[in-house]
Amino acid sequence: MTANLILLGARQFITERAWQLGLRPLIIQQPGLSDDVVNRQSDRVLLMGYDDPALIPMLKAAHAVTPFVSAITVAEEALIPCARINEALGLRGTPLDLVEKTRDKTAMRRVLDSGGFSPMQWSAVKTREDAIAFAERQGYPFILKPVDGVGSIDVRLVRNAADLDGVLNGRASWIAEEYLDGPEYSVECFSFAGRHVILGINEETKSTDPHGSAFLEIAHQVPAPMPPERDREVRDFIRSFLDVLGIQDGPSHTELKYTSRGPRIVETHTRLGGDRLWDLVRLTTGHDLLDMTLQWAMGTLKPLEADPVPRGGAAIQFFTPPPGKLKRLNGAHALRRIPGVVEISLQVELGATVRQALKSEDRAGFVIAYADTVQQAQAVCREVSQRLVLETA
Predict the structure, then answer these.
(1) pLDDT tens-digit series, residues 148-188
(2) Which residue(s) pair with 66 in the sheet?
(3) Is 307 found in the same domain as 331?
(4) How big is the CA angle at 147 (ends 141 and 151), to the nearest 5 degrees?
């Protein structure tokens, strides 16, 4: 049985999986971001801006002829347009008002403040004077990020007033937040009629490159190594958070810090996590978040009864060689034979220019490993990263 699905900001991995499950995807992609491989995997392609006023009328007309089951996305910038389409066509999906809360960081903070949940100091800012006023109340350092930012782009650690030079122009909207200490985790969850099932807790590792982004994620590990009592606390905390936010159904990816004062929310997203986290969850639990997301869109997903117990450990590490022209690339073929290596993927070729690692797309590739423990999987990733030759000029 086939069903028609709307995919916004599609990637190859999600379109391939859609076809495997019997879905016929209509892909909507913004002009300039079109991918020929993805387009060939689609039933139909619309190259349109998500805010094009003709988009929803066109989809309504198509829906009247060949009905769609839902519109979904794995792209952060397409979450609100996706929710608007589902609302306009009466399709299954996360409600628009809820998506808007998660996409606007100040709106989410107001919801949490009203529920007295995950308290922290924050302020909406537009000018340098706004940010300095926040620092006078809160102190340095603090975090500054776009209200609707994605992928840690333009997130800054502000250590002093000089770090604000040339950043705030009085037009764009930013949020200033107190700096949170402690390790950072992300939680992959699927909700069923208000019951939240946690499929994986990941510990994140950020870049330490002094010239790159201090907020760029370069490694993940599932399950996150932590004492059992912290694991229980984080699970209870995430469930309470999703209740406060009002999430009832579907996937969510939530980031938190475990501070000296306990867990605190960083942000959340009404989608599955990126960076191949779905593979780490699948390797350790057998549950595939890609399949689950598509089955949820189809209305065929059977609810899970309890959090799965992880078996073994999985890790991913990204390659971030120094910027420059790639003049030597060796070792990937042999390193794939190391026990525990699941996949090695390279996003660069000889002669290509490696960029400074400022955002996710700048990373040169990755290795995924699975082992009896998450520490062993980490060790395999480190060995591959150390032995792989990525030499830039």
Answers:
(1) 877 667 788 899 999 888 888 777 889 999 999 999 999 99
(2) none
(3) no
(4) 85
